[in-house]
Amino acid sequence: MENFEAARQYWLRMDSPQEERLSTPDADGALVREVAKGSEEAIAILYERHGGLIYRFSLSLSRDSSVAEEITQEVFLALMKQSSRFDPSRAELSTWLCGIARKMIWKQFKRQKRWQPIEARDEGETMTLEDDPGVTLSRNEVVSLVRRKVDDLAPHFREVVILCELEEMTYESAAVVLGVPIGTVRSRLHRAKAQLARTLHAAHKILKEQQAR
Q1: What DSSP line would sit under 35-71, residue for residue?
Q2: Domains (ranges, CATH) in the chain?
């Protein structure tokens, strides 16, 4: 799965400000308390720390940059209005914010009838890279392929890959965001990675054949 790891590292380097990575639960909790008092500086700092994560998550799930921008703004407006609801003993702020973003996105999915049952695209015969003997791939193209295939996953599978693999959330935090038991997170992730693995196996085989020529 080295190609998947390369894709994950590439993802983590994208749109990920240093301030976001320096965030700590205690610091975030103190800033949320300041937000509750009306501090514009505190909300600006939290936006700098977590705005990138919320935008990436929203973009990856919605596959629409305008929706991602709107959701990101709405999430931080919700934080300003509902800061008293945040309980640092139950979840980190980034987890809580992702949960808000997810609910907003799924509401849009349902309004637009874009949501799909979990089983909708889970199985069935699909064309693989090995079906086309003329395909050639560079390593950068493999990374790009992984990202496209993540986009092709059904939403329930896509969101768990985004959270656990690309954003490196723990299963516990992902369970809070998704509102499901940890066992469900593990199950969905396993099935999603199985789908991605089939694509990666084919891509890796093509790369090895190219190197052997």
Answers
A1: HHTT-HHHHHHHHHHHHHHHHHHHHHHH--HHHHHHH
A2: 2-212 (1.20.140.160)
